[in-house]
Design brief:
The protein has one domain. The chain contains six helices and three strands, in the order αββααβααα. The protein has a three-stranded antiparallel beta sheet. The protein is globular. α1 runs parallel beside α3, α2 runs antiparallel to α3 and α3 packs antiparallel against α5. By secondary structure, the protein is mostly helical.
Amino acid sequence: MARKHWMFVTVALGTLAMDQGSKAWIRTLDLGSELTWIPGLLTTVHVENPGGVLGVLGSLPVGAKIGIFGFAGVGMAAISWLWLRRSPPEALVGPAALGLLIGGALGNGLDRALRGTVTDFLVVGSALFDPLFARLPWTDTTPAFNLADGFLGVGIVLLCLLAARSLWLGQAEAEAA
């Protein structure tokens, strides 16, 4: 197996394990339980999110959510497969980013499939962000998220940086990443 495949599989499985382990821990707390680690900056609160990012789509029927998230998951898997297939055997950053994406998507997808909701628990910067989120129609506080969401975000940023790098340097040099 090429290095890129090992990197992809290792990161995807590690991401999935960390996400599911952290959610198992937070589920030992009562729903709504809050632990403040750094006041106004870092709090954990047990929330079951029926929707997507920031609770969007939470009011849709279950069938519609399955269709939307299923379509997004299949699309993400297809793009990941194509990117991984096209990357050179020695590439590490791209496969790691794809591993973050797939591991994060599997973590939240597993929750959605087994529980009907996604367990969220991290609230970062509520003192800074509550005024901003108070203007959104579906929430008035900084939403909670989970490790899978964070891994997805980091994976997206890394892939965007790699894509920008390939435009800047040219395809051949950038693919070596």
